[in-house]
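Example record used in the benchmark description.
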Amino acid sequence: MSPEKQIDLLPLTDAPPLMERELPPHPPIGQPSNRQLPPHPPSGQPSPVGSTAPTQQPQPPQTGNRQPLPEREAPPHPADGTPLPNVWIYDGYAYDLTEFILKHPGGQFFIGRTKNRDITTIVNIFHPNPEKVKRRIQKYALDREARPEDIHPKYNAPPFLFKEDFNGWTDTPNYSFDNKEQLLYKIKARINKSDFKQQIAHQDSIFDAIGILLVCAYFATQWAFLDANSQLPAYLFIPAIVILRIALSGVGHYLIHRPQVGINKVLANIFDINYVPLALVVTDGHTLLHHPYTQSEVDIKKSVFTAILELPRYYRIPIHSFHKIGHLVAGMFLRIADLFLLTFKIGAKDLYGSWQYGVPHFLGSLGIHLLLLAELVLFMLHGAFGVWLIQFIITLWISTFMIVASHDFEHRAADDEAEIEIDWSKKDWAVEQIRNAYDLTMIGNKYLDCFLSAGLSPHRVHHVLPQQRSGFANILSENIVREEAEKFGITWVEPKNFFIERLPRLFNNYLAVPSRLAKENKFGIIKEHLHPQALSKTLEYAFKGWTGVGSI
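Model output (structure tokens):
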């Protein structure tokens, strides 16, 4: 892996347990706070996100009491090897959660990975009772407000995932959750009732049982095709295995949202079975960056597929497919090894609490990618490489387009270029999630679509309630979310059909437009594809996959 693409994790330092101490008094719930939190300067604020469902009804109540302080400069990116303090930011105050890593009920990963980040939004959206969490972490308080040097400018993530001038201190949306009249609280008040929680648990059990059946069907289908005595023709095998891969990635999609504890550390890596992601990385990028901060500069999903626009348009399908074969054969293994070595360098204690709790993540990731590679080898040995390649390309491209189909990223580009300032503290977080997400429909049945869309059919509920353990739980919760959203003046638009309403637009936006080089220089179609710089970029992109660069 090239040095500039390495994950930019910084060494951590051990910190002794802190004595229990009290935070400065907090005002009663619902009343304004006199605290002034560190600012997000206007020049660094993320661009606004428009509504996908405009309405003339009254807007939801304004939230948040954060007042901007005079502009202050964010810290420069620390040099490699320069440690940052052991600090987590919550509600504008600094905490040292080092000793809490092993105690976190949701798993060690989520605490270790959010060091030097603001966890206010994460705590409030993923926990049924954020106030209980706040009381629990009180003993780890450092009794001071957050400072710029507490935040890692690139979120301890690969810098290429963000815009060049991204800075975690200035660009992180500072949502406020002080106002208990916000939509999220109204929804939680209903779904957290004991009888409804029992219904949710039942739906989760059904979802898990279907997941087990899908795993059995997955292996049975491949055996039936490869077995010499089998009569399963390729024209039936290919659509069957594509559907099963996408459905199983939908199971994995929800597993990475569950607590990363026990066997789930291994099973969550089934998310990678559609050839697109690397769950070892995506559990952070998807769960901790995309969901809390949808459509902001922190949301790496906005740019997850834009690198392909560097390629001349008619090269994109074959070159990106070759790029992803490189991931399958070598690149993902190099990325896993790189992360494993970085864990050695940084220390497993600071990321996972100990190697005992970290190794299962790596074993699961290595296992799923060895399985994918073994499948390729088996098909080649049986003289069926062509069949494997067809199912690979279909699975890859449908899955890739599904990633960007559930949000209107292509339409947001113009909004981003406008650089209009936005005060996130006055935004209702749950309202923003609903307005900036699409539900997808594949064949029209919600339960089947939940698997056929890789878990994206009940997508708006999934964004409002990212802690829920299954797509079936989200389907059950939809009526509650819709009813409460309508009280806030939100029009609940119909789901969009992936094949009819989203795929043609995405195809045009990502595959039919000229390359960036051609646009900037006004090249014609021939020069776009034959210009030396275009050919150089094409070759570079093709082989980056074989080194592990560019994985989602």
